[in-house]
From TrEMBL:
It comes from Streptomyces salyersiae. It comes from the Bacteria. The lineage of its organism: Bacteria, Bacillati, Actinomycetota, Actinomycetes, Kitasatosporales. Belongs to the multicopper oxidase family. Monomer. This is Multicopper oxidase CueO. PROSITE patterns: MULTICOPPER_OXIDASE2, TAT. Transmembrane segments: none annotated. Residues 86-197, 375-486 form the Plastocyanin-like domain. Its EC number is 1.16.3.4.
Length: 488
């Protein structure tokens, strides 16, 4: 029987072999290299290996993305200015690589928001390609959702309103312009949006400098030092944390909260500590779990998040612990290490992980059911045997309905996942079996291995309008695995 790891590796390997270029699928506007991607300046990238050797890893510190400051806090709302523009950074030490950024940061700056306090973001597109900014996991009106076809033209500005009328959650924002979302996110257009509330604030969890967002992803850097992009590329085997390849992160001998985000296009991560020590998982896509659970592994498909607590007090000062990955594709020598934690000091620690984190309301009685089928035959991908058509409504949902959706990955080789805009859902069952603790809580993205079936329940009582649902392996959604629902 194929394991999760072998199934994932086989599927992504076949995809990479089938799609050596995106030219067969993508429109002319994307077949050439985007003019908004900067030319590199300064010293030419050395003609050497385009990744970091095992012996040269963990020599660069992992940065923490900057927290964006509002330009205004008047009127009971926070206003932010963000400019999408090209920039350069050192993903590999000493190699200047052109990226696309929010405010010049790779990944983008973190926005910290609070439930009940609105946020307004002025997005300025200073690239040469259209963009659309989606706040992943947020309940917003249709015009503020970042619909794939509701784009910001090059040189234009757009104001997004986020009411934050939902509980705490580790959200993220990223580009969603259809046919371009995969390349734009790959080149850097993503960032964290951390929403908190009184429930979360009342808990004695690690906070302040001990609450750290970590955006994980992979890249393929070519011999010129540039980000190479092709659909389904299996050579994205350099692992990056907060914009740096194989960094280290200095920690005190105390508890830390890490907000893990898989911002890769298609790569999954199966994470563990190199000594096999416990990791306490406390949160998922839609915020804290009802109860924490202790595990030795955390699996994240593209777009999924996990909040975890790691207690470094069990290690003496001077200990080095590597966060490892075992999810393919790629040789473990390339993809098997993510970052290293260096315990370099002691520190007081009054934090703790309570046995109960939050309560979730009882699910309402379902008002309807439907089935969604995910399939792919490269270079196209399908939702219910149809390629995405922005002029078509695929599902009509009554406002206020609470529906059970059965999502089926009908492929025998390719893994997929499933993301719904507007709503957080609850997973009811996976392959007809009892749910693992990792599927508890509120979710907006769920992974499906080849042949898997997941049942979920979503309540559509936030806003009326049209919203998309799609595979969040972004190369797949760019290939057409996306559909539109109309709530009204």
């Amino acid at each position: 029987m194929a394991t999760r790891r072998t199934a994932l590796g086989a599927g992504l390997g076949v995809l990479g072999a089938t799609l050596t270029t995106g030219a067969a699928l993508l429109p002319t506007a994307l077949r050439h290299r985007a003019e908004g991607e900067p030319a590199r300046t300064g010293t030419k990238a050395p003609a050497r290996a385009v990744t970091v050797s095992e012996t040269d890893r963990f020599r660069v510190a992992m940065p923490v993305p900057p927290v964006l400051r509002p330009v205004s806090t008047r009127g009971g709302r926070d206003v932010y200015d963000i400019t999408m523009r090209p920039a350069e950074c050192e993903i590999l030490p000493g190699v200047r690589t052109g990226v696309l950024t929010y405010n010049g940061s790779f990944p983008g700056p973190t926005i910290k928001a609070r439930s009940g306090r609105p946020v307004v973001v002025r997005q300025r597109n200073r690239l040469t390609m259209p963009t659309s900014v989606h706040l992943h996991g947020a309940a917003v009106t249709q015009e503020n959702d970042g619909d794939p076809m509701d784009t910001i033209a090059p040189g234009a500005d757009r104001i997004y309103h986020y009411p934050n009328r939902q509980p705490h959650a580790s959200l993220w924002y990223h580009d969603h312009a259809h046919h371009m979302e995969a390349e734009h996110v790959y080149r850097g257009l993503s960032g964290s949006y951390l929403l908190t509330d009184s429930v979360e604030q009342a808990l004695p969890l690690p906070s302040g400098p001990y609450d750290v967002p970590v955006a994980l992803r992979d890249v393929h850097i070519d011999g010129a030092g540039d980000l190479a992009f092709s659909m389904g590329d299996p050579e994205r085997t350099t692992i990056v944390a907060n914009g740096k390849a194989y960094p280290y992160f200095r920690v005190a001998a105390r508890k830390y909260r890490f907000r893990l985000l898989n911002s890769s296009n298609i790569r999954a991560f199966d994470l563990r500590l190199s000594d096999g020590s416990d990791i306490i998982r406390i949160g998922s896509d839609g915020g804290l779990l009802p109860r924490p659970h202790t595990t030795d592994r955390v699996f994240l498909s593209s777009g999924e998040r996990a909040d975890v607590v790691i207690d470094f007090s069990r290690y003496p000062v001077g200990t080095e612990i590597v966060l490892e990955n075992s999810a393919p594709p790629g040789d473990l020598a390339r993809i098997g290490q993510v970052l290293r934690f260096d315990v370099d000091r002691t520190a007081p620690d009054a934090s703790r992980v309570p046995s109960v984190l939050r309560s979730l309301p009882r699910l309402p009685e379902p008002t309807g059911e439907r089935t969604v089928k995910l399939t792919m035959a490269p270079p196209q991908a399908f939702m219910d045997d149809k390629v995405y058509d922005p002029g078509r409504i695929d599902a009509f949902v009554r406002y206020g309905a609470s529906e059970v959706w059965t999502v089926v990955n009908a492929n025998e080789v390719f893994p997929h996942n499933f993301h719904m805009h507007l709503v957080q859902f609850r997973i009811l069952e996976r392959n007809g079996q009892t749910l693992p603790p990792s599927d508890a809580g509120l979710k907006d993205t769920v992974n499906l291995m080849p042949g898997e079936t997941v049942k979920l329940q979503a309540t559509f009582d936030r806003y009326r309008g049209t919203y998309v649902y799609h595979c969040h392996m972004l190369d797949h959604s760019a290939m057409g695995m996306m559909a539109t629902m109309k709530i009204g």
